[in-house]
Every structure is written in C-alpha cells, then in structure tokens.
Hints:
The longest helix is centred in the first third of the chain and has 39 residues, at 2-40. The protein is an alpha+beta fold. The protein is extended. It has helices spanning 2-40, 57-60, 63-71, 86-92, 97-108, 178-184, 191-198, 410-426; strands at residues 74-79, 121-126, 132-139, 143-150, 153-160, 163-173, 214-224, 227-241, 244-251, 256-258, 279-282, 285-289, 296-299, 301-305, 311-313, 318-325, 331-337, 341-351, 360-361, 366-370, 380-387, 390-392. It has three domains: 70-160, Nuclear Transport Factor 2, Chain: A, CATH 3.10.450.350; 164-266 and 402-433, Roll (Nuclear Transport Factor 2, Chain: A), CATH 3.10.450.350; 279-396, Distorted Sandwich (Glucose Permease (Domain IIA)). The model is unreliable at 41-61 and 435-454 (pLDDT under 50). The relative contact order is 0.11. The chain is built from eight helices and 22 strands. The chain is 23% helix and 33% strand.
Amino acid sequence: MQSQWIRLGPKALRWLLPLGLTLLAAGLFTTTRHLDAYNRSPYPLPPIPRFAARFAANNVLPNEASRWIDQARVPVESTLLRGETVADVLGKLGLQGGELRDATNVLAQKVNLRSLKAGNHYSAFFNPDSKLASFEMTLDGSGRIEMVRRGEHWQSDWQPFRRSVEMRSVQGTLAGSLEDSIRTAGGPPALAYRLADVFQWDLDFTKDLQPGDTFQVLYEEVQLDGRFRDVGTIQAAAYDNKGRLHEAYRYGDSGVFYDGEGRPMKKMFLRSPLRYSPRITSVFSLHRFHPVLKEYRPHYGVDYGAPVGTPVQVTANGVVSFAGWDRGGGNVVKVQHPGGFLTCYLHLSRFASGVHPGARVRQGDTIAFTGATGLASGPHLDYRVKLRDGWIDPLSLKGVRDEPIPTTRLASFRSWRDQLRSGLRDGKVAHGLHTQLAVGDAAPQQPARSGVAR
C-alpha cells in the first residue's frame, strides 16, 4: 500500500501544482485589477461619499437664489391625443371636482371645445405648491386660448391668429420630381398639386413632364401671424413642356382658368384619373404579354402604378353604370358619359361612398381607390375608355372645350392676362395685384362644454 502511494505522489503533484498556481494567479488578478486601473488613470477619482440627511436643500443652494426658485413656475408641454377631451387633460394636470368644472366652463366661453383636434399643442404652468397656475392651448389654424388662475377663479383670453394673403411668384426648371423642383425654386412643394389641377386637361403629370421643362406660377400664399400656412389660389401659370407652352389665367368671379387666347382650360375629359401618379407601367396595346396569365393578348387600357388606397377620380361627368366585381378586373367601376363614351376603372381596393349604379358623378369626383384585386401582379389602376362599340387609347383622347369668353369681354380679359403674364415673366407681382387681406378676428362659434379630439 505504501509503495502505491509513493508511485501516485509524483503524478498527483504534477496535477495539483499547476492548478494551485492558476487559482493563486486568478486571486491576485481579481484583487489588484481595480488598483491597477486606478494607478493608470491620469485623473484618479476620490471616493464618492454616501448621501446623508444632513445635506439639506437650503444648505446646497445659496439663500439669494432660493427665493427666486420658490417663485418660479414649472412648465409642462404636450399635445392633445386622439379621443382626449379638455376635461381629460385638465384632470391629468391635477384639477378635480368643482375646480375642473369651473375651468372647463371658462374655456368653453371662448372656444368650441368640440372643434379641438388631436395634435393641438398645449402648455401648463405650475406653482411651487404643485397647483396649476395657467393653461394655454393652440388651435391649429385658428388662434390661442389662455386660462390663468386668479385666486379661486379662472380667467380666459382668446387670441386669434391674424390671417393674411400675399401674392407670390416662383420660376424654375424641372430636375427630378416637380415637388423637388418647386422647392429648389423657392416655392412650397404643395404647389405642385395645385399646378396639376390647373393643367389637368392638357398635361398628364404621370408621363408628359420631362427634365428641362420650365414653369412659372403666380399664386396666393396664406399666412397666419405672418407665417406661411397654406398655398392659396393660383392666379396664373405657365408650363413649357418640350417646347410647347401651356398658359392658364384665372379670370372672372367663377374662378375659371383660360389659356392665352381666352379659351377655357376645362375639357370634357381629364388627362388622367389620378391627380398625381408617379408612373405609367403599361400602355394601350393590341399585343401585350400578360404578367399573370403569361400569354399575349390585347390590353385595352393604361396602367398607372400607385400604392393601394390612392384616390381615383372620374375623368368626365356621367352616370355610374356598374360598381362591383368583374372577374379578372376585380373591383370595377364603369361610368357612362355623353356622346357614347364609357370609362372603366379596374383592380380597385374599394369604392367611394355613394358610388353605385345610377349615381351621378361630376368630373374630378373620387369614385374609388386603387388596389390589386382580380388578375393583377401588383397595386395599380387599369383605366379604359370605350367609344360606342370599340376601345380607344385613353392617352389619345382629345377633349371638347367649354364655351370661350364672349367677344364683348375679350378686351377686359386680355388686359388682365397681360398683367398676370408680366408677373410671370419678371418674377415680380404687379402693383395692382399685390394685396394683403386681413380676416376679422373671431373666436369659434357655438361654444360647447365638452368635446373629443378627432
């Protein structure tokens, strides 16, 4: 037995010695790593003392500052949430019971609480005793309401925004999208959609625009308290499309646009059923490879690529003859027009309210929304036009103009056109056109005591 232990001793020593040294090294590393980091730091930090109750607030701040801090109000800013009422907001700010009712009634005397919308910004100020001192809310596009605590009562004040209209002129060259080009020229991007409305009978903004085209627009800018609010009415516009000049001048009380010769811009058919679509994905063809059926067959329409839910507008006045499911066309709307014309809108996701067989629609009305129903490889609108018994290319459709300006009024129109044309050409608003309109200040009417943000 003794000889066996003698034989095992050296082996056990060879295993235990490295293990012991490893454990010793690990222990030394653990105990010295914090000390090593401290010694290597160029800015060794002293130990932080534990907080003690003896460090009171009046010992930390100077007495001179303390009295000002005691009088300071603490602001809280937020926005009205969807479905939230003013009473909900004031309740979160600490008002309860009769005090909450009094504050809500005071606000209702100045504004219609039912007109409040989600996103309206408000600010609340508190006294050092945590009681609400004042409350301010901005009604988008209207004005600002302020409520201040006066002892045991509340006092409110309505400050309406001052609305004014300024004439603006913008000129530019198309490089990229129309919105970006207008922004580069110094105008608001939303002006692109207004411009598309003006030229919707002569220009298809999905396919006709080309890099290098030039545009000139004379328009109204709506301001609130001197700041930009919205794009107003376009008074004149010119668009040079590949060397062909399109002009539009607003004339008369009805706000109708005429070209440079006094002919109305409006025609029987719009150039496109989408106000502003990014692209045409397929054109009218008698021999097209169908992306779903994988075979060649006629394509009697024009496909407009657009996200699901894009509004579809009827291109002419008429009566809805069909609205429902039509096999490979999916959800389809068909509209009958004067002169034997029929327009069809295919692959829709849903129909607009009130669209059914027999419903009368006017040019530009939204009748449905784009989708990918039926035999469709992706979301788009298939727009088709039929004249009596045959399909025709919608892009070659020529519109019939409305009645031109009477001869007796042409001289007046030409004088007005020349003033607008000068403003477009020079980039300056003519003296007689430069107006600034102030709208009378008035608080929203029909006050209500409660309302839900929409």
